Every structure is written in structure tokens, then in C-alpha cells.
């Protein structure tokens, strides 16, 4: 892997984190977004990341300034990618927006440039043709707060060249990620393929009045040794995000139980301002949730 210059397209929540982490690890980074206003937002978001990097990683001011100075900003796509070895795309999760972007990008980027999508729910094969270079295209999926939650799920589509795949695995390690290979396309990658069904099952146990959140979490935590149960995890994810997933599933499948579950989450939690850890209350109250008390797992 001899990548030097990385372009991050889309500078929202994830794009700004990917750009800063990549620059922090010594790569030259260009941030591309649609206009100057978006780029102004990117600069603010990236500057705000300095504080958690200090707090969580013990980074010094010099290191953080040096990282920031390795980033340039542009709303001109051709200029943004003229030098790029790798383009990491983190633009909105909308099929047509991504398709249009890859069609343009494929025509403007040098032949050598590899493209990676950070999409959470769409598959790379949906865009492979639009890129005009399917063999140099794959998914590279980060988790929010990438400087601490440092997973990089690297996923092939059937046409991805194995050398490109290996290079992106090596690049992911070079920017401080734990690189996790997925050799076949899988919606939800590894993490959400495991997590979504677990969280869903826990919520259905609650809806069916089989048991209460504390008992369900306690069961999972004692039996598996996990530090959180599903409701503790839901409070971290945020009840609104969980509600959106359940609501979408209810609509897509017409399943009545999911519709009831969405209703329960809305009336019992969202409408009462219980949105999870961030608002101080969700299934538990924070900062001292009952599941973290020493006797929680004992009786
Ligand atoms: P976001 O809405 O915060 O940011 C999107 C950015 O893309 C904005 O800066 C916007 O100006 C820009 N944009 C819009 N249209 C564009 C275009 N045509 N070309 C270039 N830039 C454009 O979104 P996000 O949460 O950062 O998500 C971005 C991608 O990352 C999505 O595919 C999402 O699934 C994925 N992702 C998000 C998370 C998360 O926790 N937020 C985690 C992993 C992956």
C-alpha cells in the first residue's frame, strides 16, 4: 500500500472524523463537499474534534495542529481528487445522490484512484458500475467516534480486485483502525448483522411483556459476561435511531408487532424526552444506571 493522498468526500458527522483521523496519522487529506458553506461547517466540526483527541488519546496541541494543517478543503471535485490515491465517500445515504456522485467521480479521478464507500446500509455492488472502475471499488465502513470506536469493516463486492482489498486493509491499519475483512457482501456488515437482531429481540420481549429491561439485560450480562445488555446498548445508540429502524421495518413489512413496538417507543420514551444516554434518561437513568451498580448482577 503506497497511499499518500486521501480525499474524503462529504464532511458531515463521519466524513469530518475520517478526514481528521487520516490526517492525524500523517496522510495528506483533501476534504471535498458541495459548497463553501458545507466546508465552513467541516472546519468547525474538525476543530471541535481536537478536544476529544486530547482527552481520549492524550494528543498534544502540536500534533493536533499538524494534523489540521495536513487537511485542505475544496468544493471543486476535479481539483479535490487530482492527486488522490484513495477517495473515501461519506455523503448522504441516498442511492441517487451516491450514484450521481460516483458517475462524476469516475470520470474526473485519475486511473490509479481507489474509491471506498462508508455507506452503512447500501451495498457497494449498487454503485460498482457507476464508478466505471468496479475492480477499484469497495466498502470501508467506520463506526461513529472513530478515534475510540476504531473498527474498519472492509467489504468486497464480487468485482473488487483482491490487491485493492488488501491495500485498503493495510491503509485502515495505518490510520489506527482494527481492519475487519468481509469477503462477501453483507447488508449491515458484521456488527449490525449481529447487533440489530439482538436489539430487536430484546425489544420484542418487552413489547410482549415477557419481562422488563433490567431482567432482560441482567440475563444477557450474567450469561455472556458482556458489559452491557441490549437495553443498555439501546440507550447508547439513542432511542430515536432505534425507533427509526423499527418504524422503517414496520412500514416495509407491514408487520403489526413492529408497528406496536414503534408506538410504544414513541409514547413511552421519545414523547417523554427519554432519548437515551445523551438526554440523561432512556431505559435507564444516567450517569448512574442501575446496571452499573455492583449488586446488579448478584441478585
Ligand atoms: P451527514 O449528513 O452528517 O454528512 C453528509 C455530508 O455530505 C454533508 O457534509 C453534505 O454537505 C455532504 N454532501 C451532500 N451531498 C453531497 C454530494 N453530492 N457530494 C459531496 N458531498 C455531499 O452524514 P453522515 O452521518 O456523516 O453519513 C455519511 C455516510 O456515512 C452515510 O453513507 C452513512 O450511512 C455513513 N455512516 C454514518 C455513520 C454515523 O454514525 N453517522 C456511521 C457509519 C457510516
Task: Describe, in plain words, how this protein is organized in 3D.
This protein is of the alpha/beta class and 299 residues long. Helix content is 48%, strand content 13%. It contains 12 helices and 8 strands. It has helices at 13-24, 36-57, 61-69, 77-81, 95-108, 128-131, 162-174, 191-207, 213-224, 230-237, 239-253, 256-268, and strands spanning 5-9, 28-32, 71-74, 86-89, 114-117, 137-142, 151-155, 178-182. The protein has an 8-stranded mixed β-sheet with strand order 3-2-1-4-5-6-7-8. The longest helix has 22 residues, at 36-57. The model has no long low-confidence stretch (mean pLDDT 96). The structure holds nicotinamide-adenine-dinucleotide. The site of nicotinamide-adenine-dinucleotide has 22 residues, from helix 1, helix 5 and strand 6.
Secondary-structure topology with pairs:
Layout (H helix, E strand, L loop, with lengths): L4 E5 L3 H12 L3 E5 L3 H22 L3 H9 L1 E4 L2 H5 L4 E4 L5 H14 L5 E4 L10 H4 L5 E6 L8 E5 L6 H13 L3 E5 L8 H17 L5 H12 L5 H8 L1 H15 L2 H13 L31
Parallel strand pairs: 1-2, 1-4, 2-3, 4-5, 5-6, 7-8
Antiparallel strand pairs: 6-7
Nicotinamide-adenine-dinucleotide binds next to helix 1, helix 5 and strand 6.
Amino acid at each position: 500500500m503506497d497511499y499518500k493522498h486521501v480525499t474524503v468526500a462529504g464532511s458531515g458527522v463521519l466524513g469530518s472524523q475520517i478526514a481528521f483521523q487520516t490526517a492525524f496519522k500523517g496522510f495528506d487529506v483533501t476534504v471535498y463537499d458541495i459548497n463553501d458553506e458545507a466546508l465552513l461547517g467541516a472546519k468547525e466540526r474538525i476543530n471541535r474534534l481536537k478536544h476529544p483527541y486530547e482527552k481520549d488519546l492524550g494528543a498534544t496541541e502540536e500534533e493536533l495542529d499538524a494534523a489540521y494543517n495536513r487537511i485542505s478543503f475544496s468544493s471543486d471535485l476535479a481539483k479535490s481528487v487530482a492527486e488522490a490515491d484513495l477517495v473515501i465517500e461519506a455523503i448522504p445515504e441516498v442511492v441517487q445522490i451516491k450514484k450521481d456522485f460516483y458517475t462524476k467521480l469516475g470520470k474526473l479521478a485519475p486511473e490509479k484512484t481507489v474509491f471506498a464507500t462508508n455507506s452503512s446500509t447500501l451495498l457497494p455492488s449498487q454503485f460498482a458500475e457507476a464508478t466505471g472502475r468496479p475492480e477499484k471499488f469497495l466498502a470501508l465502513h467506520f463506526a461513529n467516534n472513530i478515534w475510540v470506536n476504531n473498527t474498519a469493516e472492509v467489504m468486497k463486492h464480487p468485482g473488487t480486485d483482491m490487491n485493492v482489498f488488501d491495500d485498503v486493509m493495510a491503509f485502515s491499519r495505518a490510520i489506527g483502525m482494527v481492519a475487519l475483512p468481509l469477503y462477501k457482501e453483507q447488508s449491515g456488515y458484521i456488527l449490525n448483522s449481529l447487533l440489530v437482531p439482538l436489539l430487536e429481540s430484546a425489544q420484542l420481549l418487552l413489547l410482549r411483556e415477557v419481562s422488563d429491561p433490567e431482567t432482560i439485560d441482567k440475563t444477557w450480562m450474567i450469561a455472556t459476561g458482556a458489559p452491557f445488555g441490549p437495553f443498555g446498548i439501546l440507550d447508547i445508540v439513542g432511542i430515536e435511531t432505534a425507533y427509526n429502524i423499527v418504524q422503517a421495518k414496520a412500514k416495509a413489512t407491514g408487520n403489526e408487532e413492529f408497528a406496536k413496538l414503534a408506538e410504544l417507543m414513541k409514547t413511552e420514551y421519545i414523547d417523554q424526552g427519554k432519548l437515551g444516554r445523551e438526554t440523561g434518561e432512556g431505559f435507564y437513568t444516567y450517569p448512574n444506571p442501575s446496571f452499573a451498580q455492583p449488586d446488579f448482577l448478584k441478585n
